[in-house]
Alpha/beta hydrolase family protein (Streptomyces thermospinosisporus), 388 residues
Amino acid sequence: MGRGSYGALRTRGAAGQARGGERPSAHRIRRCVSRRPEVACGAPELRPTRRGSAPGRLRRTLLAALIAGAVALPLSAAAEARIPAPAPAAVGAPTPATLDGIYAANRANAAEAARMAAAYGARGRAAADRRLAHPARHLLAFDGRGRGLVTEVLGDLAAAHRVAVLVPGSDTSLDTYDRFRTAALSLYRSLTREAPAGTRVAVVAWLGYETPGTVSPAVTTTTRAERAAPRLRAFLRELRTLTGPRRPRVSLLCHSYGSVVCARAAGSGVDDLVLLGSPGTGARTAAGLDTPARVWAARGAGDWVEHVPHISAGLLGTTVGFGTDPVSPAFGARVFPAGDGGHSDYFTPGSPSLTNLTRIVLGDTDAVALEEAAGERDQEARGHATHE
């Protein structure tokens, strides 16, 4: 491998190198992390072939922190208090004729969840549930139990010619749902403003899985995504049934950890797959996603995800890390400009990212200005620095 590249892959045990390939125990790993948090205890560790490299030290430190958090932190010291909520409303498979009834049933369920949360003393959750129960909200699904799940529709889904499905990343729950809905609403307004005459649009905010916390072991592994993918696949099939033979154009827009979920669900039935601020998908290349959809990727200049190590390693029954950077040339996605925004700015009104997302969803893909992939930009920057 080249100078400064990552070559040696080795496993460090709880107090150093594991002897004879022995897997260190969870107790030894936790003890190692408490004493040496900078070490990826019990985990594959990528070591730079050139000693003293500052980028190598940074990446190694980030890698160690990610893997140590994934395998060594206690997942549950005590059971968390659960806010009471009713079971989801009993509704059948949605059809154009039953949509209004389903929306009403889920609003009623949200209202009951608000009453139960208020009686329990969870005022924040009660307020969130109450907002979802407003008569203007179109809830295709709602479950107020635990961290909560909700699928909300903006626009006339049954009549839409263009449908965008948004899949969120970490730290999205009923308690933080409003910020996710704000992104969906921003996209919906942009679509309705830019859509050609006679073109109807709809946006679906799909919080159909329990997202990991940004600072948690789960955010570094594929476990949550593997659990969520069957649900997303089922919803996409349901969406096709709901829209019938008219077959609208469907775009799957996936933010952060949501892109790990989408990578496992975007089979047939999706026209465009968009990865926003993605840490990786688990696939080495866009072709490896096994989807007929056009695969797009974008990352804002201020997005901290740029600094996430792009590794993938099997560890203690799960996979840590998500592999190839989706905006790199090696991945092979269509990379479009996202401007200078940070990790949560992809749907900011007036931003280059929202402009390009609107064009993709509307099918105006020729108007999307592609940019150089990240690796090509870095190589060009190094070339300029060499000649200066």
